[in-house]
Amino acid sequence: MGKHIIANWKMNPSSMADAIALARALDAEGLVIAPPALYLASLRDIVKKSALGAQNIFWEEEGAYTGELSPAQLKDSGAQYVIVGHSERRALGETNEMVGKKIHATLAHGLTPILCVGETADEREAGQRDMVLKNEVDAAMKHAQGEHQMIIAYEPIWAIGSGTPSTPENALEAIRALTGFLGSYPHIGATFIYGGSVDAKTIDAFLAHDEIAGVLVGGASLDPEEMHAIMESAKRHA
Ligand code: PGA
Predict the structure, then answer these.
(1) Hey, what long-range contacts does 94-103 have (CB within 8 A, 24 or more apart)?
(2) Is 4 noted as a catalytic residue in this protein?
């Protein structure tokens, strides 16, 4: 099975022209590009091989929710995947309860969630990694009724944007713990990936493991050279 590579552009780039140029440069089989949502509809006509994802979603269908984007709007703009519960959104106040509602809305519209879970540095030092992962998974899965596929990204908060990824061993331990927790939800077909400061230099160490089914790439996803190396690694380890 091929590896899943998710390019999370976060709040970049600053213009439609740059977004189009970057999407053209990155476009590849097995890649999900998650641009700022306002670029989705334009990029749908640009990418030929990649799928598109949103970085966030709102759980209501329509109505008076200033600034939010509904599942139907994201789908209509070309999104097939939705990143849900990224730690940068949780840091802005997104709770486990909100993440659960977003998972429900994503699945209800036939979109594939990329659920992000992970511990802070303090939680890691206190030996709470697996407890945090279990809480985050249980809160999200409460809202996932029916048979569904989803991607679960282990994203230790201390590694994101730090320039230094987790060791592959820590990622494997976390993914094994997550695999165990998902045993309580047999209706969910979960695929586990890693995210946090992955780049061209470190990608092989993660993708070499069968249990790591892909990566979520932030900073490096804005650099076509980095991404070409990452996609080559994905091919080698498919
Ligand atoms: P990073 O971001 O690759 O820049 O650390 C990863 C992420 O946000 O998941």
Answers:
(1) 96/135, 96/136, 96/139, 96/140, 97/139, 98/59, 99/136, 99/139, 99/140, 100/139, 100/140, 100/142, 100/143, 101/59, 101/143, 102/56, 102/57, 102/58, 102/59, 103/140, 103/141, 103/143, 103/144, 103/150
(2) no
